[in-house]
Amino acid sequence: MQNINESRGGSQFRSRDVFPPAAAAIANNDFSLLGEALNLDQVADVPGDRVAWIDGYGNIKATIPSHTVKLEPEAKVVIRIGDVVSDAIYSDGSFRVPEGTLAFSPGSSGWLADGQEVRWMELFLRGGNAWERFGKPRINQPVTQIG
């Protein structure tokens, strides 16, 4: 991993004036626009069992690795975020969840780490907004699987 040399001066439109040339250079294997390599020992580990982000549909992405959840599809589970507790149904990632049901499911996003796919769990409310159901929790708020 490397930093991107980015000027604080000049244009206020960095997304237009700085990042596109850097992205093009990277795509062409030209790393001259990049800064020094990051020291990965200085990058903190991702905190577990937290709200990572909320997508535009109100789905809650949690830092719970999906491979750590040992439930059968359609199993009932209770999830707590902050002071709000809600029943949910474990889903294997499909959208076969009835309207109005909160699903606890392997998320659609992930990455490769040492050749292994990592996917986080997410909460989605079929036909609704999981973020609103849980009282609009903040990023980094603990997510607890009770049952």
Features:
147 residues; mainly beta; Elongation Factor Tu (Ef-tu), domain 3; 2 domains; seven-stranded mixed beta sheet; two-stranded antiparallel ribbon; 3 helices; elongated
Category by helix and strand content = mainly beta
Q: Do you know the CATH topology of the largest domain? A: Elongation Factor Tu (Ef-tu), domain 3
Note the main sheet: 7 strands, mixed
What gross morphology would you assign?
A: elongated
> Topology as H/E string?
EHHEEEEEEEHE
CATH architecture of the largest domain: Beta Barrel
Total number of strands: 9
Spatial gap, N to C terminus: 38 Å
Our Rg estimate from Cα atoms comes to 19 Å
Spans of at least 5 consecutive residues whose pLDDT stays below 50 are none
CATH homologous superfamily grouping of the largest domain? Bacterial fluorinating enzyme like
Structural notes for this entry:
The protein has 147 residues and is mostly beta strands. The chain has two domains: 41 residues, no CATH class; 95 residues, Bacterial fluorinating enzyme like (Elongation Factor Tu (Ef-tu), domain 3, Beta Barrel). The protein contains three helices and nine strands; from the N terminus they run E-H-H-E-E-E-E-E-E-E-H-E. Strands 3-4-8-7-6-5-9 form a seven-stranded mixed beta sheet. A hairpin with a 5-residue loop joins strand 3 and strand 4.
